[in-house]
Specification:
Length: 481
């Protein structure tokens, strides 16, 4: 299904979007990737959503990416005798391992690993940062704190620890079970929560064993600090601005988002900007102007994808939310300023033959009347490198591997088309010309650029570029091979 925009849309599925008709409507409206949130719903409901997506993919002959988002370890306080308490600024409050119900003076925090990492002066954030505590004294099984910002604390509210790297694995016991389930199901991407270091990504990759690509969620200050190593270990990145904005001053998030997006572009790895993009559309059919500007800003930065969470999963207007994102994306990408910004931020160090091939393809396409860049790809690398160039003409990725086509549905500007296994370059040229005509990218008298690797069906061998007509009789007459 051809899109008339380059940025991709990720839509989270949930109670508001769990039927065939709704999910198909979301895909036709613009959703390129569907996110299955492993924090909500049991394996049976997730399996059913996966089945529906794959049925829609077959019915529409349109590769669709499925992203399974692992929950990650959840740090929560225990229960209170009264259900909740009101903490006043300046008061003392104790966190400990005592399982007794909480009071105005203390509550259980059943995570000894937190106490092991804490030091006096560290901050603890409760209930999405609404309550801030400062550690004054701590030991192996307790932390005495001063209430800096007060508020209502109630049963099992979440706790964030922004100042220290916790000795916690990114994969909990539940995550490991969910990871294996998702891989057996056949998802294309796994989003890894609570990433603090590259080792967290490597652990997940070993468990995946090539069955899914790994996308690291950047939601902790330590992940920002060690981002280069995490990026190198990952296949893609999600800038999870919700938790990031809790653990860091909110004014720090926009420049961090910009830096991370640019680093991902340089590395030719897809990056999603996520969280609260059209939050008001959970209850309203129309977004705020500020939300539209936020979505537009991510597109101007060159993000590969923008994501809907509760808007499409539990909101009253999931279809309208996807349509709004699609409309904003088209308008932004038609703005001449968008092209200026994207091209001004293209900073690429080209070191390989493949880098040179895709750069030449872009330059030739933009300097002449080329209609589309067609790249044959096994692993997806050629398409990712082409997308990194951010060309002004469409990118059509052709692959005989459905898994590759699905994963590329997350990448900027890449339109995926299935093709048969090829052994001769002339057949590849003919296949590309046919696909360009069928998909509406070019007419018979137009020209296209084709990139591929010889020998065929060997990942990482991009070494050939060809300009060809879209008319098969002309291909035969000009290329006897």
């Amino acid at each position: 299904m051809r899109r008339f925009r380059n940025v991709k849309i990720v839509a989270t599925l949930g109670p508001a979007s769990d039927t065939y008709d709704t999910i198909r409507a979301l895909h036709e409206a613009g959703a390129d990737v569907f996110r299955l949130n492993m924090s909500h719903g049991d394996h049976d409901s997730i399996r059913e959503k996966h089945r529906i997506i794959r049925q829609i993919e077959t019915d529409l002959d349109s590769p669709i990416a499925i992203l399974a988002d692992l929950q990650g370890p959840k740090l929560r306080v225990g229960a209170f005798a009264n259900g909740e308490e009101e903490l006043e600024p300046g008061a003392s409050f104790r966190l400990d391992l005592d399982a007794a119900e909480g009071t105005i003076e203390r509550v259980c925090l059943p995570h000894p690993e937190i106490f092991a990492a804490l030091e006096p002066g560290a901050s603890l954030l409760v209930n999405d940062g609404k309550i801030r505590l400062k550690v004054t004294e701590c030991g192996a099984d307790y932390a005495e704190t001063e209430v800096i910002i007060g508020g209502t604390i109630s049963d099992r509210k979440g706790v964030n620890v922004p100042d220290v790297v916790l000795p916690l694995a990114a994969l909990s016991k539940k995550d490991r079970a969910d990871l294996e389930f998702a891989c057996q199901l056949g998802v294309d991407w796994l989003a890894l929560s609570f990433v603090q270091r590259a080792e967290d990504v490597q652990e997940a990759r070993a468990l995946c064993n090539g069955r899914a690509a790994i996308l690291s969620k950047i939601e902790k200050p330590s992940a920002v600090e060690w981002f280069d190593n995490i990026l190198a270990a990952s296949d893609g990145i999600m800038v999870a601005r919700g938790d990031l904005g809790v653990e860091l001053p909110v004014q720090n998030v926009p420049p961090i988002q910009k830096r991370l997006v640019r680093k991902c572009r340089t590395a030719a790895k897809p990056v999603i900007v996520a969280t609260q993009m059209l939050e008001s559309m959970i209850e309203s059919p129309v977004p705020t102007r500020a939300e539209v500007s936020d979505v537009a800003a991510a597109i101007y930065e060159g993000a590969d994808a923008i994501m809907l969470s509760a808007e499409s999963a539990a909101g009253e207007y999931p279809l309208e939310a996807v349509t709004t994102m699609d409309n904003v994306a088209r308008e932004v990408e038609n703005d001449p300023t968008y092209t200026e910004i994207i091209e001004a931020s293209r900073k690429i160090t080209r070191k390989s033959v493949a880098d040179g091939i895709v750069a030449a393809a872009r330059e030739i396409a933009e300097a002449t009347d080329i209609k589309v860049i067609c790249c044959f790809t096994q692993s997806g690398t050629t398409a990712l490198l082409t997308a990194r160039e951010r060309p002004r003409v469409p990118i059509m990725a052709l692959s005989n591997l459905r898994g590759t086509a699905r994963r590329l549905a997350l990448s900027w500007g890449v339109n995926c088309v299935m093709c048969g296994e090829l052994e001769r370059f002339k057949l590849a040229v003919i296949s590309a010309a046919r696909a360009a005509r069928t998909q509406g990218y070019a007419d018979p008298l137009d020209q296209i650029v084709i990139t591929a690797g010889l020998p065929f069906n060997v990942p990482g061998t991009t070494n050939i570029l060809r300009i060809a007509p879209c008319q098969e009789s002309l291909i035969y007459s000009t290329d006897p091979g």
